[in-house]
Amino acid sequence: MAAIYFGAVGRPTVPDHISLWGLRLKICQSFDQWANVRPVHFLPGVVSPLRKADDTELDRVVVRKNSEGEYAGLGGRNLGGRGPGGEVAVHSALFTEVGCERIMRFAFDLARTRDRRKVSSVTKSNAQQYGMVLWDDVFKRVAADYPDVETESVLVDAMSAKFVLKPEDLSVVVASNLNADILSDLGSALAGSLGLAASANLNPERRYPSMFEPVHGSAPDIAGQDLANPIGAVGSAALMLEHFGLPEQAARLNKAIEATTSAGVLTRDVGGNASTEDVVKALIEALNT
Fold first, then answer.
1. What CA–CA distance (Å, rounded) separates 89 from 76?
2. End-to-end C-alpha distance for the chain, whole angstroms
3. Is residue 171 within 8 Å of 110, Cβ to Cβ?
């Protein structure tokens, strides 16, 4: 098996933490898919709530530390026997030097393939003085091996503001599991909708299959109503084609996405009235032209 194409999962009766830990994180961690790549594309024809998107070239990618960090699963709930109000929950974040270095080198290597060679590290070392200070130290050391790449280190709260106020200054953003999860959702929302967002969970050594999935959730409230935006799922397929070493095919799929949005064939989450089926038909037509 070379790859997993993962669709939206979930039911209203199943708590999110059950489906996350019992399925998605189980796949990511068991197959050591330690690099999560989430491009943020501003598509033609999609109105962004970010006013700069009207006249500024915006293109960034969030590289998420898919292993360790805040989603390591360390901790527990204890002392429940004390009665109501007596239980204590502890959740620890895990950062290793090896884990930090490999995701940072991945980000720097990715930056070298882009027009803007810049890596922005997201941290919170002013408050998280152990794990995040290690993160900062490793970033400085790795950056020294990439003198051709511009760097910056920004606190996560300041980076949230920068995503909105100065997005043109970003190219590759590397962050911990939790911080990148939040920032990539913010970036996709600024591009127009989470329904547009694609992602790749990569095992770069290719010892295990990588997994490709849209960022959005299962949206059970609109299931079966022909309302869901398929762009995120199709964009994930393009990332999978790139992983297979098929860049021309991936480019065709991305061009079909742009042609579809440019033509105004948009689902309601991005201000249109097209159905899921309408968008899929438009994508197929664009691929065939």
1. 6
2. 32
3. no
**CA 144, 146, 150, 152 torsion-angle sign:** negative
Average pLDDT score over the chain: 88
The answer to whether 240 and 3 are in contact (CB under 8 A) is yes
Number of H helices, E strands in the chain: 9, 10
Among residues 44, 69, 62, which one has the least CA distance to residue 54? 44
pLDDT tens-digit profile of 127-151? 888 899 999 999 999 999 999 999 9
Nearest to 194 by CA among 11, 40, 30: 40
Residue with tokens 């899921």: 276
Backbone phi and psi for residue 70, each to the nearest 5 degrees, phi listed first: -75, -15
Burial of residue 56 (CB within 10 Å: 0-12, 13-18, 19+) is: exposed
- 3-5 sheet: strands from edge to edge: 3-5, 210-214, 198-202, 35-41, 59-65, 172-175, 118-123, 150-155
Q: CA 269 to CA 183: how far, in whole Å? A: 20
pLDDT at 44: 85
Distance (Å, whole) CA 268 – CA 132: 40
pLDDT < 50 regions, the chain: none
Distance CA(202)–CA(213), nearest Å, equals 11
